[in-house]
Amino acid sequence: RPRVLYWFRTDLRLHDSPALHAALELDPECFCPVFTWDPHYVYRTRAGPNRWQFLIDSLTHLSHALTALHPSQTLLVLRGPPLALLAALLAAHRITHLAFEPDPDPRAAARDARVRALAQARGVALVNGDRPGRTLWDPAALVAANAGRPTTSLAQLRRAAAALAAAAEPPRPLARPERLPPPPPERPSPADLERADPDVAAGRAPDEGLGADVNAALRARPERSYAGGAAGPRADFAVPALEELGFAAGAATTPLRGGEGEALARLGAVAGDAAFAARFAKPATAPTALGFGPEENGTTGLSPYLHFGCLGVREFWWRVQGVVEEYEGRGKREGGGAAKATRPPESLAGQLLFREMYFAAQAALGERFGRTVGNDIVRFVPWHLPSKLAGPNGDGSGLAPADAPGPDDDADAYRVDSPQAHAWFRRWRAGTTGFPWIDALMRQLRRDGWVHHLGRHALACFLTRGGCYVDWERGARVFEELLLDHEPACNAGNWMWLSCTAFESRFFRCYSPVAFPKRWDREGRFVKRWVPELGGFPERFVYEPWNAPAEVQRKAGCAIRGDGLSPVEDDAGDGLQSYPEPMFDFAERRDVCIRAMKKAYRVGLFGNDERVLDGSWRRLFDDEAEGPTEGE
Ligand code: FAD
């Protein structure tokens, strides 16, 4: 009988899991569920403590769920590089079938190709299920149905989906298993695993040419995930603790807890409110909501659960479709016809279609999707703080080490072509721009790891074409570190959208940091929650406290002063708290940016243009508006 190794990755659930379903259909004699604690993600992927904590929660929940289906089952977390560990396990357990959910992320897909080759070389069969698990449709098949091009609109996406199947609807979700086979009689022995990676066996961090730890600056202590060997410090294959990653106690501040149970409970609450789920209209939900769902006029908050695969996307889709049908049917039965559900793009189904659109756009371009250079759908704009990848050879080569950012900076390499723009970027990142709306959103992102979609709009527009004129790649890197739901395809795609470099072109429509939030929250509840220094400001000044007369500031207990970078002594003699002065005149900056965008559109280069790759684009931009970035 088959002996199955099930490799969990971004599918931390038991329901609606095509690969798991197919693996169990084999009726295996043993079933070995593993998760590999991959050094690539520990050291090379920008991720703060909130996202690690969410992963730890999700793995812990999954392990308990496995035990509930068979008392001898737990999730085996193996620390080390996946290829080496899998090779050791396939041999040690005489595995006949290796099962996993395909991951369309470009780097993961390249890793999976190596794993497939390994399995084939060992005569081990691969099991991936009869449909994709991470998305509604297979992104590669969508690209093929879109004539090999990235999908850049919902219309294209829907046409491609319709071409894939008789019905444009995605397949139905699969049921959760009711039992599991036993695990292999023996756990993998340290000797088996020692052969997998000599560094891990010796208690050192794996050395796969990983380079510098991009998260080093976030850690309070040295990272020690691999110090106890592949089976962990207690040799029990348990889920690692946050402290092992070197984060300080209490570093994870998000109130959102990971796990399939939490995901299904939240989906249940969404589906349980028929009017909310069926009449969902994204643009009408409030970026100033203090919570999720109907009570706060918020959105669902389900994105982190989709990201980690705690929630099956087809489960989400069909639960909502069920509610919509019931809701509209009820209207008809009651003779009304008034009960009309919303439709894409603004409905909940529409939101999931946007996710598909970005996955399929990324599938067409691979890693190039995440940057400007070499990306043929993204417009070239000579932003400030460009990535070093945009250097003379287009791949970052030929740049002097002296161009590397300082210790204060993001580990990502970019050129500081404008000290002014650099200061703005650092203030944006720290939530000290002096614009309360922007700072509140940034502080929410840092503490909770989540921000409403329109809040993300405001942050991204402000950093790029609607204020700072800083490269969208800088903002995307910061989101990568801080978002719980960070999804390479959705993050890069939305940054391109908001910077009007792809997907969207109405760059003259900017978000004012004063007028925009007032539409939802005139009294500034949201700002006061996240920027408590401003708690005493009257409604009139809460979004523009710099306009408050000194007397109002004194009464509010907070003075508007300082540059937002160097701390102001709170006891500046007056007993008042401090909140920084705004870093620029927004209306002025908006006009400068719009002029610069007009110019970039007129020049009309895209990321794959030779002139972008060889640097000769500079000759096409004069010094009007922002002009070309300086330097090499
Ligand atoms: P809901 O409105 O309840 O939507 C339901 C689901 O639909 C979401 O969970 C999400 O999976 C999907 N969805 C909704 N809107 C979008 C969208 N515009 N693009 C892609 N999927 C969408 N979303 C991510 O999942 N990961 C990211 O890294 C990410 N980065 C973003 C960066 C920027 C600059 C912007 C403007 C948006 C980004 N988004 C990202 C999209 C969107 O903001 C979030 O998916 C959404 O806010 C999550 O909240 P929710 O689950 O309550 O959404």
Automatic annotation (TrEMBL):
Keywords: FAD, Flavoprotein, Lyase. One of its GO terms (cellular component) is cytoplasm. Residues 2-134 form the Photolyase/cryptochrome alpha/beta domain. Pfam families: DNA_photolyase (PF00875), FAD_binding_7 (PF03441). Residues 170-188 have a biased composition (Pro residues). GO terms for biological process: circadian regulation of gene expression; entrainment of circadian clock by photoperiod. Coiled coil: none annotated. GO terms for molecular function: deoxyribodipyrimidine photo-lyase activity; DNA binding; FAD binding. Belongs to the DNA photolyase class-1 family. This is FAD binding domain of DNA photolyase-domain-containing protein. It comes from Lineolata rhizophorae.
